[in-house]
Design a protein that fits this description.
It is a multi-pass membrane protein. By secondary structure, this protein is an all-alpha fold. The chain is built from 23 helices and no strands.
């Protein structure tokens, strides 16, 4: 059998080699084109996520999971404004209304990701935002438990695909070594939703009685209409691909296309949906390892963020002071998350930042477990929050980087969101309702899970490094089924069928 010809696409390149690859597409022009994407694509995606998190937090204690950058969570603005009493909801019914949103998220994530390219992200993403804007507005007019359950279910269906869908969408605009920082940027910026939602609710509740509607209803109505407006605007400014962007010049479109082709050789070929691609994604060891990791991150983040004010309060601070003291750990986590993502992209490595964040978290958990000093215990929260939240953009970018072609990547990103949400739900119910030493058991569990994530990362690196080496050694054998009798390799078929198992695809460690 003759070896595959040298015309086969080149392996993915490093940031330095990308800068030197083509004189017509200089590093300066590429960076200018990328900056235009940052200024046009990222802001609207950030707004989508911001309104998603804000709309959710308006009803109840929302656990921020692996896919949503956590912010201060607290009894929902609408609940404080009297929603539970006005609708006559029991505590159990109220919890169901909050939890059903996450269940709907898990159900809708995979189907929507698989349909994203077929329908078009320029239609699908704005349509989801517009639809949930209508649903949020409708929450202001519910008058019964059944009605609230229905609208919360619809809200989960429309909101569920957003974050994993945006991750999938951005992977078509940015190279593999640029993705982590962009994911970190839009998820981290969405943390502003907590403060914004609280300030807005404080103003809107003053409308109590206007138009015959209670204050909590106006929270939903106004937030829903704002979301609806942002969704409609998206139809005019969200492009399906970089080539469809009205903000990029023709020259910059060519620069982006060339850049993506050099970084992701398979990007110039369009794969087609098949259940085999879903199966290959679900059975890929590196996907399964990071799926377990996503469950761990969801568990760590949701429980910590949801109960952080209570943990601070148990240190002897007043309720108001406890709320204010949670700002510091979040601010530090915000900065460290961006720095970590920049380091991850700059050096094209995911495992080391993941392990570093786990170590930081373990240090915080250990200090909290061993300390009986109030100030030291509070200081431990900076490590705990920073370590846990720093993981939120790293795992989805690592997974997206190493999953090809499109439908395999769509399955992988949706799967990790579903598992992360489930981990978050489980974590919330594991936290004790009473105060005291029972929190120690949760901290011990968090230390164990963080250590497990380190082990999973090491195993994943070993597996990916082994596969990279094996693909290099067996290149001719892997490509042999796609080489014709004349010695020509069908590159498109090879990339579409092999995907990330293609010998020219280099896994990012």
């Amino acid at each position: 059998m003759e070896p595959a010809p040298s015309s086969s696409p080149q392996p993915a390149m490093t940031p330095e080699s990308l800068d030197q690859a083509d004189g017509l597409h200089s590093a300066l022009e590429r960076r200018r084109a990328t900056l235009k994407l940052d200024l046009t694509i990222l802001p609207i995606m950030t707004l989508y996520c911001l309104f998603s998190f804000m709309d959710r937090s308006s009803i109840g204690i929302l656990a921020s999971t692996f896919w949503s950058f956590p912010r201060l969570t607290r009894p929902g603005n609408a609940r404080i404004a009297g929603l539970q009493n006005d609708l006559g909801l029991t505590d159990h019914q109220y919890k169901i209304c909050v939890a059903i949103l996450s269940v709907a998220h898990m159900i809708s994530a995979l189907p929507s990701n698989l349909l994203l390219r077929k329908i078009g992200p320029h239609i699908m993403l704005p349509a989801f935002v517009t639809s949930w804007g209508v649903v949020v507005t409708a929450q202001g007019f519910v008058s019964s438990y059944a009605g609230l359950v229905i609208v919360r279910t619809l809200l989960g269906i429309f909101e569920g695909p957003m974050v994993s869908g945006v991750v999938l969408y951005l992977s078509g605009f940015y190279s593999r070594q640029e993705l982590s920082l962009r994911i970190s940027a839009f998820i981290s910026a969405a943390s502003l939703s907590g403060a914004f939602s609280g300030l807005l609710a404080a103003a809107l509740v003053q409308l109590d009685g206007v138009g015959g509607r209670p204050g909590w209803a106006w929270i939903f109505i106004v937030e829903g209409m704002m979301t609806l407006a942002v969704g409609v605007i998206g139809f005019y400014i969200v492009p399906a691909t970089p080539q469809d962007s009205r903000f990029l010049s023709e020259a910059h479109k060519k620069v982006i296309a060339k850049h993506l082709e050099l970084s992701q050789p398979q990007s110039k070929y369009k794969d087609h949906f098949s259940f085999q691609q879903i199966y290959l994604s679900l059975t890929s060891p590196h996907v399964l390892l990071l799926t377990i990791g996503s469950f761990i991150v969801g568990f760590l983040v949701a429980g910590l963020v949801t109960f952080l004010p209570s943990i601070v309060n148990q240190l002897g601070f007043s309720s108001t002071t406890s709320q204010l003291l949670t700002v510091g750990p979040y601010a530090v986590a915000f900065i460290v998350t961006l720095i970590s993502a920049y380091f991850s992209d700059r050096h094209k490595i995911r495992s080391i930042p993941v392990i570093m964040m786990c170590v930081i978290a373990v240090v915080g958990f250990a200090i909290s477990l061993a300390s009986h000093n109030r100030d030291l215990s509070y200081a431990s929260l900076f490590f705990m929050v920073t370590g846990c939240l720093g993981l939120t953009p790293l795992l989805p970018s690592w997974l997206s980087n190493n999953s090809e072609p499109h439908y395999r990547r769509a399955t992988a990103t949706a799967l990790t969101q579903m598992v992360g949400v489930f981990g978050g739900l489980l974590s919330i119910w594991q936290f004790p309702a009473r105060e005291g030493s029972s929190y120690d058991n949760i901290i011990i569990a968090d230390i164990s899970l963080s250590s497990t994530l380190v082990l999973l990362s090491v195993v994943n690196v070993a597996y990916l490094a082994h596969k990279n080496k094996l693909k290099t050694q067996r290149k001719e054998e892997l490509l042999a089924p796609f080489v014709s009798q004349t010695g020509e390799c069908d590159d498109e078929k090879a990339w579409n069928e092999l995907g990330d198992r293609h010998p020219d695809f280099v896994y990012i460690l």
